[in-house]
Amino acid sequence: MSNKNSILSTALANYDRTAQMLQGEVDSDLLLKIRQPKERIEVTLGPLLGDNKLHLFKAFVVRHSEAMGPAKGGIRMTDSVSIDDVTGLAMEMTWKCALIGVPFGGGKSGIVADPAKLTKHDKEIIIRSFARNALRHIGPQVYVPAPDMGTNEQDMGYIKDAISFSMGKATTQGCYVTGKPVILGGIPGRREATGNGVVICITEAFKTMDMKIRGATAIVQGFGNVGSVAAIGLHRLGVRIVAVSDLYGAVADEKGLDIEALIEHTKRTGSVKDFPQGRQIDGKKMLEMPCDVLVPAAAANQITADNAPNIKAKIIAEGANGPTSPQADEILTKRGIFTIPDILCNAGGVFVSYLEYTQETQQEQMTEEEVNDRLKKRMTEKFHQVYELSRQRKITMRESAMYIGVKNVCQAMIARGYLS
Ligand code: GLU
Asked: How many distinct structural domains can be found in the chain?
């Protein structure tokens, strides 16, 4: 079912390690059961696009587990996303939600299309087509989508609109999608939540390692929703961001890049490329440059057995899902590099999605200050829970986070009984 170092194979390798740790503590049949996704759905979309022709797009919805509650996870829209990728990502969502302590299972969806090659209008049509065609798999008690790579707040607005329109109502009852524009029932601070959560984890990691954050150096791979917010947050804490990359290029300046100016530049040009302050460098080589913190916040499988021996960072904070291959993970552990694993490091997004879900269910409104306070409290608490267990058991942060997440899911399954 999987290729070497695919998103799914990485998710399974991380799971298998954890299942081994849980042998003797949890029924082995149960451990086999939660290794499998509960449901994998493939949908064909065939909308009429702006060129007045029908176009076919594959879309997938995977619910990996519902033990803790309705499946939760974003919609990935890229030209190469596969149902196996979506399965691996849904599995990661199961452990992420269980670790961060929100009452959701793990889900994910994918639409095979490259948003960069679509007009704004065509993208809207495809998103609306997905919402209508996948509607039977979406709902507050079934699966609640959110933004992921290639989708954003505006797309979640279209989804809410398409669903309420299909129901013949002005709005939906309960939360069908999170990460919506605030004016449509979204929550302030959701867009920044993942990046802010990454910064909170890094701050705590510095404290536990007795390192000073002010004056430290960082490299950020990916300058989208996660990378740009993490970069600005670190910059404001006095961290020098010495290099940043995106799909189109990479820029470096040992004196520290002016992140606010870089954000302006990307708004204008669509990329970090050709930012006048920095020198242009190779995005791959960038990962091996000296720094205190490396934040992979782009695609999966970026830190591999090939470059792991050359990584110079002391801390790796995984803003992306699955950026480190299992082989690289072993190398980094041997080299004493402290990795904050994805299911902890980027869990701020789904935590604030949970606040949005409860807000909409109860028809309340939370302020940005409340959201950020709760995010900080939860991320800090979970960071230390994972850290303490990793110290007690002499295991890595990833092993510790996975152990807590998987064990919580097992406990929920046991509490439900074995008949499903
Ligand atoms: N796509 C994000 C993630 O991978 C957020 C998911 C959500 O908010 O449901 O964690």
From this structure: 2
